[in-house]
């Protein structure tokens, strides 16, 4: 792009932006995994079955809010920077983990459950030693999807002051600098592919040993 006076983004190093972006994604995915896994387990227990439609409805409603709207609501409460971005990423990451946790636990063979009961397992020991290991593959697939969604969604965090790979994209759009947009988009895509490949390997190992 020879017509541009500054074709290379220089305001912040791409290494620093990539590290900050990956850290936000990791924290948000961790929160989403804890919340989604907990809700999924509770919703599949006999006492919590009646709550399953409500839990799913709340999670789906959370997904319908545009990320920009979540940020607009969160900024007055949390201020500018990483905090509102982390909130948005966590909300968007819960649904894949929740859905796959419920699906995985519902698919555990009844014969395995009966065998655990016959061996005298309590309900919590049966959950940890039988159900979760057999449902680990689907659950990991939800974690993988949650992380990939967070990688893409985190780019909008730069609009509210978070240090992410969305910074060159936002600055390029504001300044009509296509080169900045392309650089940011390529790096976000590379990070998404890297995260997907890494978690894909983890998922493969989990499914292999489940």
TrEMBL record:
Domain ABC transmembrane type-1, residue spans: 18-199
Transmembrane segments: 20-44, 65-92, 180-202
CDD domains referenced in this protein's UniProt entry, alphabetically: TM_PBP2 (cd06261)
Pfam families the record matches: BPD_transp_1 (PF00528)
UniProt keywords, alphabetically: Membrane, Transmembrane, Transmembrane helix, Transport
InterPro entries to which the protein is assigned, alphabetical: ABC_transp_perm/SBD, MetI-like, MetI-like_sf
Keyword Transmembrane assigned: yes
Membrane topology: Multi-pass membrane protein
Location in the cell: Cell membrane
One GO BP: transmembrane transport
GO cellular component, one term: plasma membrane
Family label: Belongs to the binding-protein-dependent transport system permease family.
Protein name (record): ABC transporter permease
Native organism taxonomy: Bacteria, Pseudomonadati, Pseudomonadota, Gammaproteobacteria, Lysobacterales
């Amino acid at each position: 792009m020879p017509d541009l006076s500054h074709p290379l983004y220089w305001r912040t190093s791409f290494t620093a932006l990539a590290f900050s972006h990956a850290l936000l994604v990791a924290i948000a995915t961790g929160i989403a995994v804890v919340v989604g896994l907990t809700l999924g387990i509770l919703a599949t227990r006999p006492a919590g079955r009646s709550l399953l439609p409500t839990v799913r409805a709340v999670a789906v409603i959370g997904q319908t809010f545009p990320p920009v709207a979540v940020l607009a609501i969160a900024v007055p409460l949390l201020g500018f920077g990483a905090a509102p971005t982390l909130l948005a990423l966590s909300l968007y990451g819960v649904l894949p983990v929740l859905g796959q946790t419920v699906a995985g636990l519902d698919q555990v063979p009844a014969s395995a459950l009966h065998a655990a009961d016959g061996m005298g397992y309590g309900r919590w020991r049966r959950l940890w030693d039988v159900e979760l290991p057999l449902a680990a593959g689907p659950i990991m697939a939800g974690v993988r999807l949650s992380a990939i969604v967070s990688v893409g969604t985190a780019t909008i965090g730069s609009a509210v002051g978070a240090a992410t790979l969305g910074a060159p994209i936002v600055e390029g759009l504001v300044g009509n600098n296509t080169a900045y947009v392309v650089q940011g988009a390529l790096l976000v895509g590379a990070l998404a592919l890297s995260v997907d490949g890494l978690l894909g390997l983890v998922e493969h190992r989990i499914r292999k040993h489940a």
